[in-house]
Amino acid sequence: MGKFDNLSGHCAIITGASGGIGSEFASQLTKRGCSAILVDIDPGRLRTVAEKIGKESSRAPYILVADLSDKDIEEKLDEFCVENDLDPDILINNAGIFSFRPVTDTSTKLIDSFIGVHVGAVTVLSRWFAARRAAKGSGWILNMSSMSCWMPMPGLAMYASTKAYIRVFSRSLHYEMKDHDVGVTVACPGGISTDLFGLPDNLKKLAVAIGVLDTPERFVRKAIDRMLRKKKQYINGWLNRVSIFSVGLTPTPVRMMVKHRLLDKGIIR
Fold first, then answer.
1. DSSP structural state of residue 91
2. Angle, helices 122-134/157-176, rounded to nearest 10 degrees
3. For the whole model, what pTM was predicted?
């Protein structure tokens, strides 16, 4: 048995836990004996996930329905932990939103959501959690960025820029918390076969088969491993790691082709 195969006595907060990667994080951690607090804005999906995980692991997770962009989100989490006598030592900032459209076609409300969830919530919750765990001298934070943080492509301005913030913020916090033995890891996945991008099931299966997309199960297993080993960063797959360098060399005509063929014609929205 590996060092971190048994996480009994540990407790994890997972945001965006009502589906996709978030629910997979919750499932894998509870199967290792970890208690889990699932946080999401969707009460119906959150309860469904919690019931499913409870049956699979015999350890029913706690659920907190909350809007992560609320100004008092850390107070809500603090009160929830006190009320339920919980002392979380793992934080996974997984919640995210996606949109492929020009900035000028993006509503102010959606822009506020990008900033509120990807920038505001990640910053506030990381700070709140890091301060708690620094006082105890242990803990783990995993913040979800994206390969898109290296991709200033038309249509991805809000998604890529806010994910880039998560990466830079997390890398800096990693060094700040090192003396307190609190690990801060940022994951920058390439495509994952979830509902985030709106692909039909047949295309998702094809993308996984040819290696363009990773499965949530495989990505989460490796991300948890990197987090528990307190690595700075995790990028899944050698192709994704190599592509970081090639993306920066993408010529303007190619970027404009994306705009003209996909955005202007409304093929992807």
1. E
2. 10
3. 0.87
